[in-house]
Structures are given as structure tokens and as C-alpha cells.
Gamma-interferon-inducible lysosomal thiol reductase
Amino acid sequence: MLISPFCSSADYHGIRLPSRPKSPKVNLSLYYETLCPVSKEFIVNDLVKVFKEDLISIVNLRLVPWGNAHIIDPNKTIICQHGSDECFLNSIEACAIKIWPDVKQHFKFIECVERQASDRRQIGENTWKSCCRKLKLSPKPVLDCYNSGHERELLLRYADETNHLNPPHTYVLWVVVDNQPLFEDFKNFVTYVCKAYKGHLKLKACKSLPQEINLAEKANSIQPVCNVSEAKKKHGSPTASWMHRVMEPPA
């Protein structure tokens, strides 16, 4: 007796019907830097919708903490647009993503850090360690990652990914849905996610959304907050003292 490869034990008259294929998720990528005001505001006030409205069930969310940082040869010194504090927090958040790969876990940490970092006077180890205490996470693996220099390796990977975006990013915040940058319309990311989703799940967040989106029109009226050219123009070729400070955590 020949048995269909799709059949095994009983579900329906002794035959298990083929399982329904999993719904394809939408890729949502956030290219940001920790101290850019628009990055902080978006993470704290907008990106949380992915979890509050259960969009995470249809989304592969990735956070890439590099933004407008750049590398100075020959020593591959990392320069960040908002100074050494930003380099430090970029490193901490890169370590958190690596240590806690579950996006629900590392997003909670990053959202907490960004909320704390809104007050520039509080930036330093206490910023992220207080988030560890709040979320009942051990700070040790993050500190080990940072002190071992592994954070630099992680940042250089993010740098390579960010620098190979197509089209290239020209400012931060840069939000991409299934390889399509949203330009200045990133706050409407839910609309783009819902329209890109081809699965069968019906989410409340995807109801009553605009029927048409004109991304080309949006791209022509860009008003960037943290601009790539301005970042490089601001720092240029750093002095020896700046190069020494840039990757060190604040005292």
C-alpha cells in the first residue's frame, strides 16, 4: 500500500492533513544611533507598538546601533556623531542584542536605556545598569562583552551592514521594511508592515489603515535630524585625544 508523503497518523478519518505553511514575516530593520534625538523618540514612543499591538507576530525586528558613526583609518578608530557617550551606548546595546537574542528581551533593555539617555546628565554605566536592575537582568555578560573588546567586533559588523545599504542611508533614523527604506515616513511604519504582510493573520493594528502610500513623494521632502554628511563634517579627522576618548566608557 502506497502512502502519501503528506499523510501520517490520524487527524481526519485516520489521515493527518498537510499542515498550513507558516505565514511569512515582514522584515523591519532599524538603523539608528543611541543619542540621536529622533532615534530615542522613535524607539521609546513608536517602535513599542510592535509589541503593544502584537505586530511582533508578523515582524522580524532587527535593531542596528551604528547610524552615522564612521571609521577612521589606519587604526579603524570609531567616531560617533554625538561623541564618546554615543559610542559607549552603541557598544552596550550591541552587546545586549548579542547576549539576549530574543528581540522581546533586548528591546526592553534598549527601550529602557534610550528612555534613560534622554537626560544627557545620566549617561554612563548607571544608565544601562539601572535598566538591568529594573528588568532583573545580570549586567555581568554586558560588561564582559564590553571589556573584552567583543563590542568592537559587533559594531564593525553593523558598520559594514549599514554602509552597504541600497540605497545608502543619508540620515538617521533609517527604517527599512522588506528592503524598502521608508525615508521620512518612518513613523507610519505600521502601514508599510501591514501592506507588506502576505500571511493569513488578521491583526487589529492593520485595520483602518490608508489604502495608498506614496513613498516617492515622501522621499522628496526629507527633513533629516541626524545627517551623515554633517556627522563627518563635524568630526573630520579627529585629534589624538579624541581618538583616545571615543571608545572609552565615561568615568
Notes: The longest helix spans residues 84-99. The chain has a mean pLDDT of 81.
